[in-house]
């Protein structure tokens, strides 16, 4: 399934989602690797097979094997880190903040692609997963790397659009299940 097929699968009640998906492909704020890495990483992080498969198909022809692997790594490592650091941030017991995480995360230091690209993918996934500590850490790294507010906002906007596509498809499945019952 391609992104065009994904847009066609979005139900009419979510027309805005379909339009926003269309705008992502033509956005020129990001490099091609940044954009398609976001498609892959956020598609995986959406946890929706239809969205994941469509965006991975779209990205796989635009990314090198190393960049595709790095996008997948961003989704995987942020899946772990966002849970842990969201807990640390939200827990009433602040002792956790001074404890070592004891989680391996070597890929963050050596992602196999430009560090800025990996950080953009990581901040987008962290926004999807609602981890404020990770958002702050990745934004700080991106800002120190000279990344503009526009680029960071675009990455997070892509994450929001991809998450909403997954929700729209889930809602459509619920409608179809109700009709079948």
TrEMBL record:
Active site positions, chain numbering: 131, 134
Which InterPro entries does the record match to this protein? Answer: AhpD, AhpD-like, AhpD_core, CMD-like
Enzyme kind, highest EC tier:
oxidoreductase
Any Pfam family hit = CMD
Q: Which reaction does it catalyse?
A: N(6)-[(R)-dihydrolipoyl]-L-lysyl-[lipoyl-carrier protein] + a hydroperoxide = N(6)-[(R)-lipoyl]-L-lysyl-[lipoyl-carrier protein] + an alcohol + H2O
Q: What is the disulfide pattern of this chain?
A: 131-134
> Which key words are in the record?
Antioxidant, Disulfide bond, Oxidoreductase, Peroxidase, Redox-active center
A molecular function GO annotation: hydroperoxide reductase activity
**EC numbers for this chain:** 1.11.1.28
- Carboxymuconolactone decarboxylase-like domain: residues covered: 95-172
Gene Ontology process terms (BP): cell redox homeostasis; response to oxidative stress
- Job of this protein: Antioxidant protein with alkyl hydroperoxidase activity. Required for the reduction of the AhpC active site cysteine residues and for the regeneration of the AhpC enzyme activity.
Question: Which protein family is it in?
Answer: Belongs to the AhpD family.
Q: What is this protein called?
A: Alkyl hydroperoxide reductase AhpD
Gene label = ahpD
């Amino acid at each position: 399934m391609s992104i065009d097929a994904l847009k066609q699968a979005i139900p009419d009640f979510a027309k805005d989602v379909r339009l926003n998906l269309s705008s992502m492909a033509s956005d020129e704020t990001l490099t091609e690797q940044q954009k398609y890495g976001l498609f892959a990483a956020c598609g995986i992080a959406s946890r929706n097979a239809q969205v994941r498969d469509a965006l991975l198909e779209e990205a796989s022809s635009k990314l090198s094997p190393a960049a595709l692997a790095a996008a997948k790594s961003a989704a995987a490592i942020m899946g772990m880190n966002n849970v842990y650091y969201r807990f640390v941030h939200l827990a009433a017991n602040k002792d956790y903040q001074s404890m070592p995480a004891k989680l391996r995360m070597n890929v963050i230091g050596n992602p196999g692609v430009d560090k800025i690209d990996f950080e953009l993918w990581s901040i987008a996934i962290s926004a999807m997963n609602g981890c404020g500590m990770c958002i702050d850490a990745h934004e700080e790294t991106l800002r120190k790397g000279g990344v503009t507010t526009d680029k960071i906002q675009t990455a997070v906007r892509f994450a929001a659009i991809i998450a909403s596509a997954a929700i729209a498809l889930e809602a459509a499945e619920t409608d179809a299940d109700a009709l079948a019952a």
